[in-house]
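Obj.: predict assembly geometry.
Materials: sequence records (below).
Method: joint structure prediction, all chains together.
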Amino acid sequence: MSQQRHGSTPGEADGVPAFPDLPEATIARLPEYLRALHHLAETGAETVSSEGLAAAAGVNSAKLRKDLSHLGSYGTRGVGYDVALLVYQIEYILGLDKNRAVCLVGVGNLGHALAGYAGFASRGFRVVALFDADPKKVGEEINGLIVQHTDDLERIAAEESIAIGVIATPPGTAQAVADALIAAGVTSILNFAPGVLSVPPNVDVRKVDLAIELQILSFHEHRKASLTALPGGRAAAVAADAAPGKAAPGNAVPGNQEAVGS
Amino acid sequence: MSQQRHGSTPGEADGVPAFPDLPEATIARLPEYLRALHHLAETGAETVSSEGLAAAAGVNSAKLRKDLSHLGSYGTRGVGYDVALLVYQIEYILGLDKNRAVCLVGVGNLGHALAGYAGFASRGFRVVALFDADPKKVGEEINGLIVQHTDDLERIAAEESIAIGVIATPPGTAQAVADALIAAGVTSILNFAPGVLSVPPNVDVRKVDLAIELQILSFHEHRKASLTALPGGRAAAVAADAAPGKAAPGNAVPGNQEAVGS
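Observations (raw structure tokens):
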């Protein structure tokens, strides 16, 4: 999954950022912390240690403390973080109090899966419209919504003031769908269609490509195999062969720790 | 989507990394470059400029040059990168020459979408087994594969020497499925079930949570709205309110540039 990040850093006033420009990796972990915090709140917990929250969210506690420091949350020594306050801060930053309207374009198997995904409603989103270009699918009811024709996408997306458009169409039509969404005023797109969307600078695109996720895992399989199958010397030779010339160890690259999720 | 990264940095021999330990963000972009390079190769292109490849992959060219330098690919001034060589280098690093066996657990709507996803085969993976716990789904044929019962998952995954397991089950059963996959020798898991999997250090887990993707877009919607709706001063006050105490601008954090996809 990749993020096409456009637009510049928020303007500053008196040296204070207009909006905290969090590292993308931190933004991506905030929903994990929020999910863990909601579970803790349901159990009646009022505070949580950074270690406890980190374990529940599947990250290491040093990274969690650094992430939350971006929100101005440092917790209290010996007490930890106030669960309710942290939930409020994260939901505010993520803008989840807005209960944003989402439309879904393309109701094949993936579209059906997305339309039926219960997790959306519980996490601050309303799927308000479904679209498909296939006349056989138009009129079909999925989770109480009638599939509408993509010819009406631009008009309806504008009427429903859609905030986020989800594209689950074949690659060939994804750009046209994105153009229609953008023409309707949508400025955030979640794209499941392989390929790169061309969008104006004010539009954020996140992309989920299932094959790319597998290729990233394939890298780790290859890495692990090269380490277990070969003694260091041979493995070094293989790595050098794989990457002739300088094969810089990732950790020598500034910012790696931020880049490497964990 | 998040990466639970376990295991330590590869051992080194003579100061050479046993395997290039690339930044996670770089690894995630390599498949994009590969897809763009395959398109170029189909058009008969033998070389490509960093700007041309960057545009085709939807990243900026400085980031692309840095990413490829990790592979020891620097291109030739005035000529660019050799398409065939770069394809070979990226496919080698990603281990795509292995044509890895993938199994899919959970054939609901999402599972059906994944099982029917043509992109897998074309990008170095074979879906060789499908599993579900629902007796009504067992025996169903999807894309030429018969859905088998999860009771047989561990045995079959071992027999088929599955490299990567894809979990598309409800959250409640994801951990049990992961345990069975790991018991069968699977060391890479792609998890679509919300929540955190507990896995041993040698197992890599990548996670795709659709609601999390939307929450990340919600952050950008919120950020954009706060910038357009409010003059700098007011916006700064809002940001300060959202994050009492220090609201560190992300770009002050080392490594942000790596963390922020683009």
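Conclusions so far: Chain A touches chain B through 128 residues (CB under 8 Å).
To do: check interface contacts against the pulldown list.
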